[in-house]
Amino acid sequence: MKKEYYEVLGVSRTATKDEIKKAYRKLALQFHPDKNPDNKAAEEHFKEVNEAYEVLSNDDKRRRYDQFGHAGVGSSAASGGGQYGGGASDLNDIFSAFNDMFTGGKSRGGGSPFGFEEVFGGGGSRRGRPSSGIPGTDLKIRLKLTLEEIAKGVEKTLKIKKQISCLECNGSGSKSGATENCQTCHGTGEVRQASKTMFGQFVNIAACPTCGGDGRIIKDRCTSCYGEGIKLGEVTVKVTVPSGVEDGNYLTLRGQGNAGPRGGAAGDLLVVIEEVPHELFSRHGDDVVYSLAVSFPDLVLGTKVEVPTLDGAVKLTIPPSTQPETMLRIAGHGIGHLRGSSRGDQYVKVNVYVPKDLSHQDKELLKEMKKSSGISPMAHNDKDSKGFFEKARDIFS
């Protein structure tokens, strides 16, 4: 299965544009083909990184990707970025980093030759402490849908067990709501560790282990949630599923995931679609196929039959002399298009029905039919004898 773009870049689904760009530059520099000659694995990873950045750096593509997954952006994800994608300005930054490697960093006016402080988190703009609490985690659930529901779209009401804000302390984790600055990180929510190498200075930034990145310490812990501000609970969520979704697609419900500890923003809820196999129809994109067994006389003489569709039964005409394996089309009775108002079609695959048990009379009739020159594919029409179609009409009329 294709990796999620957020996973490829190693960022959260709530990452800002600056965080996405920073992660992209780091990975692009690491896996660039010029730095990894004859390394196919690095080249493939580099292409994945550029494809992910091409989508997540574009507001419209990111919105569609967040709602529908890879199906929402289609083949456009890798377009617009040249051989390696990513955008000219971003690639210029990467090439500049390579140039610095050989110029001692002079092209940047001094500093580390690889620009490590900027690429790996040091020397640039400092990450701010969360405004309140610790962000909650995303939640993923699977939603089973029938073809009938997928064909037209459906609204579902889901009961979900997840972390919710504690009612006793309003999610703060404190009885009185009183907090104080963390003495370890001095309220920034992060700790830094710098180390110098021959390539320059590395700065490692991590969430403060004392306050968990919040920057605040609770003074009077809530006894109901033990100071976490969250508890396990059950909620009801409504989700609107558009027509045309496929197995593995997912919908993102912002802020419907697990609540964040101590008043932090809630994560997202990812609803993964699971298509239930249908007992009558097989799906082929937005079209569906139904197999219909028809008797030999009906194939030869033609008939009208009632066939099921995703919208109910309809009448279908089987033309005379229809051959086995013929596909008859019923327009507009397939799956609704994901990004459009029209629907696919239903195809009826016609096959001959061969009975296992025949009466003596039936066998005699078939023997008579077999004698006709018209029933044999090798025989030619005999103008002096009665044709097969005429005999068939006489027998079954």
What does this structure look like?
By secondary structure, the chain is α+β, with helices and mostly antiparallel strands. It is built from ten helices and 15 strands. The strands form six sheets. It has a four-stranded mixed beta sheet with strand order 10-11-15-14. The protein is elongated and about 100 Å long. The protein starts with a helix and ends with a helix.
How does the overall form come out from the CA principal axes? elongated
Largest sheet: 4 strands, mixed
Helix content range: 10-25%
- How many β-strands, per DSSP? 15
Strand fraction equals 25-35%
Widest sheet: strand order? 10-11-15-14
The CATH class of the domain at 1-125 is Mainly Alpha
CATH superfamily placement of the domain at 1-125: DnaJ domain
User: What is the gyration radius calculated from CA atoms?
Assistant: 33 Å
Residue stretches low in confidence (pLDDT < 50, at least 5 long) are: 75-89, 95-130, 380-385
H and E order = HHHHHHEHEEEEEEEEEEHEEEEHH
Q: Nutshell version of this structure?
A:
The protein is an alpha+beta fold and about 400 residues long. It has 10 helices and 15 strands.
State the main characteristics.
397 residues; alpha+beta; Helix Hairpins; HSP40/DNAj peptide-binding domain; 10 helices; 15 strands
What's the topology here?
Layout lengths: L4 H5 L7 H15 L8 H17 L2 H10 L19 H16 L12 H4 L19 E7 L1 H6 L1 E12 L13 E3 L8 E8 L2 E8 L8 E3 L11 E12 L8 E4 L15 E7 L5 E4 L2 E9 H6 L1 E5 L6 E5 L7 E5 L15 E8 L6 H11 L17 H9 L1
Parallel strand pairs: 1-9, 11-15
Antiparallel strand pairs: 2-7, 3-6, 4-5, 8-9, 10-11, 12-13, 14-15
Helix pairs in contact: 2-3, 2-5
